[in-house]
């Protein structure tokens, strides 16, 4: 939800322009700061940023986005397997129109992915359906030495210019295989009944796959191993975040109606968090994707709305419930990375955070936004400093 000043908002960011009384109450009661979630030499992806928020050394544990999502999907990545995120995207006039095929529905996407697995799958190539446009491709014996471009980074770019490239000789065969799959998917999907219906309805077609973020099975310690957190849970509509939770040793809590978009079940996520805390969880990680997707669409008004929904429909009920618990509870509020509407992609800038812990002396910050947080008592943190501050380690 972090962003840049926007002229249409009078030079404010969406966070500054949004009506967020509960964000601001947390800022008044807590201590703010700025957090570097993505090292300069790593891509500004949600996988890196969320691992960073949780205190992992991303240089040590990161093995690609696809293998993390595989854990959420219950797909075992074996030794020698290469896992990749496989988007369904929309290509028009030889250019990438968007990374999400117009936020295709789960049912439509599953039909297309199963069709591709039937037509292109083999003993070495398997497609697995995920959520909306986010799917999994597994290549047995594939090599990860590839330069892959995330499709959300390059809307409007001719797709041939950003196809997969090997970064050394070991990656040549795998790069050729994946590029061949992209081209074959374009032929197979263009006249599929799902896409013909979407075209008739004025929706973007899911007429190509786009594999990216390759990696092998990661070796990740759990949050208990790292920080002594005995019982933890994660709540998210996104396979990636759920997969991080699996490897981190967190219980993955599924919420009916959680979509990853502006229409997600905010109240359901809040209640799931409250129930987990009342059920003995020591740490609950609630992830909301809506503002990120609005940023990717460049939709300023929608981004402001999603921020206000997060304030009133998640933080408010959580704060009210926490006030009634028998033991004090710390609450942290932060995005994982900025997704500026003007750029429609992620950036490396540090993000604003606030930590409220009953009994701690608040700092002088009274609002929660990108600029106010720079004046906070925590200053600028990086690595595992944020999670240790939250846990008082």
Q: Can you describe this structure?
A:
- With 393 residues, the protein is an alpha+beta fold.
- The protein folds into two domains: 7-62 and 220-391, Alkaline Phosphatase, subunit A, CATH 3.40.720; 71-215, no CATH class.
- The protein has helices at 14-17, 21-29, 46-53, 58-61, 65-73, 106-120, 172-189, 193-200, 223-227, 239-247, 266-278, 290-297, 300-322, 370-373, 385-391; strands at 31-36, 81-92, 95-98, 125-131, 134-140, 146-147, 165-166, 208-215, 232-235, 251-253, 283-286, 331-333, 351-356, 380-382.
- The strands form four sheets. Strands 2, 3, 4, 5 and 8 form a five-stranded antiparallel β-sheet that branches.
- The longest helix has 23 residues, at 300-322.
- The model has no long low-confidence stretch (mean pLDDT 96).
Average of per-residue pLDDT values: 96
Q: Class of the largest domain, according to the CATH hierarchy?
A: Alpha Beta
Class from helix and strand fractions: alpha+beta
The CATH superfamily name of the largest domain is Alkaline Phosphatase, subunit A
CATH architecture of the largest domain: 3-Layer(aba) Sandwich
| Number of structural units classed as domains | 2
CATH level 3 topology of the largest domain = Alkaline Phosphatase, subunit A
Rounded to an integer in angstroms, the radius of gyration calculated over CA atoms is 21 Å
Total number of helices: 15
Succession of helices and strands:
HHEHHHEEHEEEEHHEHEHEHEHHEEHEH
Strand tally, please? 14
